[in-house]
Amino acid sequence: MDVIQAIKERRSINFFETGQELPDEQLRELVEISNLAPSSFNLQPWKLIVVRNPESKRILRRCAFNQRKIEEAAAVFIIVADPGGVEENLERVLDNWEELGYMKPEARQGYVDMIQNLYGQPNSLKRKFFAIKNASLFAMNLMIAAKGFGLDTHPMDGFDEDSIKREFDIPPDKVIPMIIAVGHLKKGTTLLPRAFRRRFEEFVRLGSY
Amino acid sequence: MDVIQAIKERRSINFFETGQELPDEQLRELVEISNLAPSSFNLQPWKLIVVRNPESKRILRRCAFNQRKIEEAAAVFIIVADPGGVEENLERVLDNWEELGYMKPEARQGYVDMIQNLYGQPNSLKRKFFAIKNASLFAMNLMIAAKGFGLDTHPMDGFDEDSIKREFDIPPDKVIPMIIAVGHLKKGTTLLPRAFRRRFEEFVRLGSY
To answer: Distance (Å, rounded) from C-alpha B203 to C-alpha A39?
Structure first.
C-alpha cells in the first residue's frame, strides 16, 4: 500500500471482527518495523505489552471504561513510556554511535552532559515529557505500519492508568500515554465519514518566517 | 512509495541539500495529509510554525545549540503542543460528532465530563501530557508523509524551549516537544548504517497476556 494512501485511509475503527488473532510472526514483524521510529538521541524510551488472550482483554476492558473494542480486537497494545530509558540505553547508544562513526570518542562526555541537561533527573517532569513524546512517535509509526499489514487500529487514552499499572504489573514511574487496539475491520461495516480536521490556516502559522 | 518501505527507509538525516525550497503548495499538501493523525477525542491539540526564510532559520539555529541542519534544510517545523486544545476544539468536535452520527445529543454532557476528568484543568500536568502525546502523533505522521513526497526529515529536541518561544512569539503555556527539519538529502551523501534498535525481546512483554 502506498504511504500517502495508508495515512489517508488510516481510521480509528470502532468495530473489529471478533475471533481474529494476531499471530506471533505477524506481531513480531509489525513491532520490529514500528520500532524503527526515531527517538531523542536514539534512547527508545518505550516498552510494549501485548494483550491477546480473552481473560487479559477482559481485565484491560474493565480498566478502560468498558470499551467493547478491547475485547473484540485481535490484540491490544499497552504503550509504556519509560522515563528510565536514559539510564537503560545511554551507554549502549554512545557505544553504538562510536562504533558506526556517528561520534568521536572525545565527544562522548559532551553528549552525556547534554542529555542530562535536556531530560533532567529520572523522576523529573522533563523526563516524563521525554518519555511520552518518544513513545508516541513509536505509537504512530505502529498505527501506520499496521495499515501495511492490512490491519486497523484504534488508539485510546480513556482508561484508569493506575488500574492498568496494577493489573499488568507496570512500575509506578512509567507513563501509559495510550493503548492501541489492533485487528481487522468487522465485515460489512461501513465507516462513518471522517471527523473534521482544522483547515490549514487554523493551525499553521507561516507569518514572515 | 510503499508504506512499509517508507517506514524502513525513513532516517533522521544530518545533511540537507542547501538552496532547496519547500513551496507553498507542497507544504500545504504535506501538512494536510499529516494532519489526518488521530488525537484524543479528535481534539487536535497541536499547532505548527513553518520556518523557511534564511533570517528566521538563523534565529532558530541559535536557539538550538547551533545545529547546522536548521539552516541547511528547506524548512524547519516548530511542533507546538497546545494544552488549550480542549477549550479550542471541544464544542466543534461534539457538534461534528453529532452531525456525522458518532454521538447522540443526550450523550454530549457525558463526553464533556469525561474529557474534563481525563485531561484535567488547562494548566495541569495531565493537560500537558495530553498535548505532548497528541502533537507527537502528528509529528510522526508528518515524518512518514514526507517520505511520500521524496523529502527527508530530522526531528530535534536539543534546543532551548524558552528562547524559541520568545523568538517565535509562542505563548508560555504551550509546549514544544520537537522541531523537525525537512528537505532533500544532500547530493552524494552516503548515510551511515542505521543506529541500533533493541531486539523484540528487550522491550516487548508477551507473558501470558
So the answer is: 15
- Residue B46 forms beta bridges with which residues? B81
What ipTM was reported for this prediction? 0.98
Residue A207 has pLDDT above 80, yes or no: no
> Is B157 contained in some domain?
yes
The CATH number given to whatever domain includes residue A60 is: 3.40.109.10
User: Chain B: nearest CA to A152, how far in angstroms?
Assistant: 13
Per the structure, the complete domain to which residue B25 belongs is given by 3-85+125-187
User: Residue A92 domain-assigned?
Assistant: no
Nearest-Cα residue of chain A relative to residue B85: A203
Q: Could you tell me how many CB contacts below 8 A there are between chain A and chain B?
A: 222
What pLDDT, in 10s, does the model give residues B143-196? 999 999 999 999 999 999 999 999 999 999 999 999 999 999 999 999 999 999
For residue A140, pLDDT over 90 is answered with: yes
Report residue A170 as a C-alpha cell: 507496570
Rounded to an integer, what distance in angstroms lies between the CA atom of residue B34 and that of residue B171?
Answer: 24
B209–A50 C-beta distance less than 8 A: yes
Structural domain count of chain A? 1
In a domain, B65, yes or no: yes
> With an 8 Å Cβ cutoff, are A10 and B38 in contact?
yes
pTM of the predicted model as reported, rounded to 2 decimal places: 0.98
Contact A40, A119 (CB under 8 A): yes
At residue B18, the pLDDT reads 97
Residue B209 confidence class, pLDDT cut points 50, 70, 90: confident
Q: Which residues of B touch A10 (CB under 8 A)?
A: 36, 38
Nearest to A37 by CA among B178, B183, B31: B178
In-domain check, residue B118? no
Q: For chain B, how far is it from start to end, CA to CA, in angstroms?
A: 35
